[in-house]
Amino acid sequence: MQPNGHLNQEPKKNEIHLSQLASVGQVAAGIAHEVRNPLTAVKGFLQLLREKHEERYVEIAQSELDNALHTLENLLQVSKPDLEDEPSQPTNLAVELEAVLQLFQDQIYRVQVITRFEKTDASVYGKRNQLKKAFFNLLKNAYEAIEDKGVISVSHTVMNGYVMVTIEDSGAGIPKDKIVLLSTPFFTTKSQGTGMGLTQVFSVVYEHGGHIKVESEEGLGTTFTISIPLDQGRQKYEVNKLHMEFQEGQELRDFFEKNKKMFEEKLLQEAVNVKDKVEEIQTIGNINLLHNAHKLVLFLIEGRKHDIIVFAKEEGKIWAKHALTLSFKLEWIHALRRVVWGFLYNYDRLKDSVLVREHFYTQEKQINELLDQFLNYFFISYSQYKDELLRSHREMVEDLSVPIIPLSESMCILPLIGTIDTYRANTIVDKVINQIGVSRMQRLIIDLSGVAYMDTAVISHLLKVIDGSSIMGCHVVITGVRPEIVKTMLKLGVSFEQKAETKGTLQQALSEYLRM
Ligand code: ADP
Ligand code: MG
């Protein structure tokens, strides 16, 4: 599929305008399948429990019930996004797309992304995080549809009062008869799929008065076109009045503690894409994101700078150690910043404090400076850990690049393979001399049959190895020198013979010395 011209192209064969959500029957079939299985299992275990009380049965039954509940919650969440009481706000879809694209950074070597964004000052009015989530789901599918290498093109423009976004992939495509099933909950063709992604996309787009068009050609790729009505000039940024618990004279800290649950909700709502990762991050890195967010917020409002630095360093290290994606951390901290400010606004509103300008700007300085500190230390600690990791990998590779293998008590062999540059030649000199010191070997066979080329500098390093070895009482035997290397040496007027013994091949050397 060509990465350009998707906006005005001829309709593809399998184009379908989808105008309604999946039918009740389809949804029911999905639920029956996904929820009946765990419930049937629970029934079975209850039966077993009647006969014999085993703790194991209770545990399995419980986890099956959890599965069923989880499925139902998922279904509710994606098919009725209005349940999530996210307020509508002016939203720039181009900006949200850019942010979501960042989350797929780890795929850049596999999939090329082409963006064509026009009329990027347009906005729609809606649930920003839900829309963002929808783009995430569409892009995730696009990436998953591309098996090996491919292209994803994303465009943004305005047409007939709608913001139009297309996401086009060069992936597997969708069979024509399956296109009508896309919005159905649980419809999936993936072994690990949930079939909930597109359900969320469809419900969010419809809720915003928009349309979806799907064009697909098997083996060529798929294009999703999303249109959402333009927002006609509203305030770009709005403060948000929340219903929160507040008591006269309440301290800011207590206010945050009392409204902890709402804080968590708002945070997950703001960081939609991290939301799905919370559990995974808890499992992989044993990090409780919500708990830590709380801790950070208390540090922030109390101005505990040193605690923040220590905390950031710790987190940076853990994050790097478990190879967690950085973009999620960024989204998380940005969400945290927004929620904290929302809370501060509401605290002041409820307290009915006529904020003095001085106070406001002091608070702004404190919170934002501290958060910036957190990010700084987090990233420094993250990259230090990664650097350290690289360094130790490099040491390991260095060791592997000079494999000195003992053949007997007094004899070792060093087979050299690949390119030898000055850096590696230096490593070889070091390691060989050290090893002779440690092992007291008397003969070292250096086999060069795996080395195609050596430049003058490298050859002179090798001669140094021979010199150094003989000073330490170790006799060097060179085998398998390739003609190209011999030519270079002739040109230079140097040879190994004066300093070391040479043998045509490694086999010759081995059979001779091992006999001795
Ligand atoms: P899931 O990704 O968990 O399978 P979705 O609702 O996101 O659930 O997608 C449902 C199905 O639609 C996928 O399993 C896949 O077969 C198909 N699909 C969605 N997007 C694409 C795409 N861009 N290319 C090919 N197939 C797709
Ligand atoms: Mg999906």
Structure, described:
This protein is α/β, with parallel strands linked by helices. The chain has four domains: 4-75, Helix Hairpins (Orthogonal Bundle); 89-229, Histidine kinase-like ATPase, C-terminal domain (Heat Shock Protein 90, 2-Layer Sandwich), CATH 3.30.565; 252-394; 405-515, STAS domain (Transcription Regulator spoIIAA), CATH 3.30.750. 54% of the residues lie in helices and 15% in strands. The chain has helices spanning 24-51, 55-79, 93-102, 128-145, 176-179, 197-207, 252-258, 260-270, 272-275, 278-285, 289-301, 305-321, 326-350, 357-401, 422-439, 456-471, 483-492, 506-515; strands at residues 14-18, 89-91, 111-117, 124-126, 150-159, 162-169, 211-217, 221-229, 405-406, 411-417, 443-450, 475-479, 501-503. Strands 1-7-8-6-5-3 form a six-stranded mixed sheet, covered by helices on one side. The chain has a five-stranded mixed sheet with strand order 9-10-11-12-13. The protein has a two-stranded antiparallel ribbon with strand order 2-4. Helix 1 (24-51) packs antiparallel against helix 2 (55-79). The longest helix is centred in the C-terminal third of the chain and has 45 residues, at 357-401. The termini are far apart. 30% of the residues are buried. Bound molecules: adenosine-5'-diphosphate and magnesium ion. The site of magnesium ion has 4 residues, from helix 4.
